[in-house]
Amino acid sequence: MVRAVICRELGAPEHLLLEEFPSRALKPGEVRVAIRAAGLNFPDVLMAAGEYQLKPELPFTPGMEAAGDVTEVGAEAKGVTVGDKVIVKMRHGAFTDEAVVTPAQLTPMPSTFDYAEAATYLAGHGTAYHALIDRGRVAPGEVLLVHGAAGGVGLAAVEIGKMLGATVIATASSDEKLAVAKSRGADHLIRYDREPFRDAVKRITDGRGADVVFDPVGGQVFEDSMRCIAWGARLLVIGFTGGIGSAKTNLLLIKGASVLGVRAGEAARRDPALGEVRLKALLRWADEGKLRPNVSHRLPLQDYAKAMRLLIDRKAIGRVALVME
What we know:
- With 325 residues, the chain is α/β, with parallel strands linked by helices.
- It is built from eleven helices and 15 strands.
- Strands 3, 4, 5, 6, 7, 14 and 15 form a seven-stranded mixed sheet that branches. The protein has a six-stranded parallel sheet with strand order 10-9-8-11-12-13, sandwiched between helices. Strands 1-2 form a two-stranded antiparallel sheet.
- Helix 9 crosses helix 10 (272-287).
- The two termini are 14 Å apart.
- Pfam families: ADH_N, ADH_zinc_N.
- This is NADPH:quinone oxidoreductase family protein.
- InterPro entries: ADH-like_C, ADH-like_N, ER, GroES-like_sf, NAD(P)-bd_dom_sf, Zn-ADH-like_protein.
């Protein structure tokens, strides 16, 4: 029997159920993967609540990414062998012991990662890559302001921004979170509750402001960010965990600034070549030891609601993984 987290009614994580199902036979072109770990992302929470742009038909299993071992390869499934350690890419369906997928959804695990790290890598770091490289075009020497710098995508942005040669300013809500951001390359640290970040950014940059703003928070944070940007700045809209902000067109005009939406998954679906370049770079950097997700919490599958609450309550530092027993 296979365990899976099931969403039968939209709502809070506690509305989800852990149910058991028999394994089904493979169809031609399919592959069976024993899931060893699944990564949590904030869209999982939104999807279960019916608040995400993708709204799967009920019932469905949440979870966008996982890692595990190939246990069976169906007829006509090419390029995959039983025993392969793989990352599984999904739009939903990862919170389970076993997944039936196609070879196109599988990526070899980096040799430097364990299952939990592999299951929490591509979504966060892929979003940061797409934001900073494809959309923001961060250049060496520029100032990158990263909000929510201890979150999954925020910490990935700190790592990649530093690797690209930017001066990284990290904001977060606690010294513990900022210490992790510093360990991943942040040059300057700002605690939201100790100094208004827009004043701190101006102080750090001698009044010039940030060239690129990485914002997964939104709301007032986005609106205040427009008041500490340099000429030609790019404001990257990653998410809105803190609410939906409003763009002040006068501030954007005065600074010659751009607001850019970031949807890494959709961009790759519309332009597969773009996604292939991104994937190759992320796997190479992982194997070279340049990037590694910070997994602050590893919980068993049955603690899925508690794990999702860690994201909602912003208690995670980096990533949270469900680990199958």
